[in-house]
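[step 3/7] fold_predict: job queued, chain A
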Amino acid sequence: MLTNYHRPAIQHALCVAAVVVTEAVQLTGLQASASLTEGRHLFYNAQYREAAEMSLEFLPSSADEELARDELRSSALLFQLRRLLEPANRQKAGTALSFDRCIACADLVTAFMTNTAHGQQLARTRLQASPTDETALFFLGKLDLNYVWLQLGPLHRKTGWSEYWEARRSLDAVLKMNPQHVRARVARAWIDYIVDTKIPWGTKWVLGGGDRKKALAALRDAAGADADFFAHAEAVFGLWEMLVRERRVPEATDVAERLATMFPANPELATFLEARRR
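[step 4/7] structure written:
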């Protein structure tokens, strides 16, 4: 079993290996096809536009890969919009654009809605045939959660409640079948956090309640669990973002330094860490 002490070095080695393989393919004159792995590396290096574009080039060979592609593109488009519209995701607070003044935003939202609806329909169709399909349940919940984040975050709209309930039911079903599903644990933690921090106190109970402390504890556990490279990355990035939102700067800095060994090309991590060193 990997310990938390050994994990960062091993994760960094895997990143380097992926780069070496890509360069080797290029040097031999062969055309490397777009892949989910490449798209995920771009995403976690905060190259969201490039990750979204690569997802269009990737041709899935299975139904699971098609759902994974839609989820990656949905996430990449969401983070592009967050970068444009949310001050907390800008280098200088208060410099975010309004939606009406954002030239690119309308097209990004249209692309997000089209892609997310496609993935949701794929997952729902699979669940009609097999209600306990763990993969379909997870991706449906994750796509729904991305939709809720878009509405409550960058767009500042109090809507998406049917998607919220579908996400909550889907992720709870996954965790009932597989309590160690790291990605589902991360997504479910964000639901608890959303309800506690984005919903007015008087209506939280209508949405099943939320608990930011419970959410943070769940992300700590998920970030320390054994998982594949990208599931682990998602958990650690989630922990970092939640610590930043909670203004727990020393802890967030420790996690950012850990992430920087995994994704040394990520400019958002570099900016955050540079600010802490001043």
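[step 5/7] annotate
Residues 105-129 form the longest helix (25 residues).
Residues 1-32, 89-94 have pLDDT under 50 and may be disordered.
exit 0
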